[in-house]
Amino acid sequence: MNIFIESQGFSVSPAIERHTRRCISDALCRHQDDVKRVDVFLRDVSGTKGVRVVSALTSVSLRGLPDQVTDASGSDLYAVVRLAARKARRTTERSLRRRRRVNRQSVRGLSFDVAAPAAAT
Fold it and tell me: Which domains does the chain have, with CATH numbers?
């Protein structure tokens, strides 16, 4: 699973990068065979009232499914990254569960002809 981190409005410190990689890896480790790539975009979206607000947008690329995008925002960057990782995990699990459900339903609709064994003469 490849994790790419980008930021806008501030530089990513090694501590933030470690925290982000650990949270994303822990959240998606069960599905690492299905996850091709995770992009994390960290952004400072501070308002005009002087309140510091950061946003974390995650894009999870899954094999055979469209990208799953989630967003989280708040005042504490570390808490925002944890929330974004949890949202990414829930969205990924939901998409994979739906794919499995569709695959099972398509298999149920198939009919198999079972031939009787040939009699030995």
Answer: 2-98 (3.30.160.100)
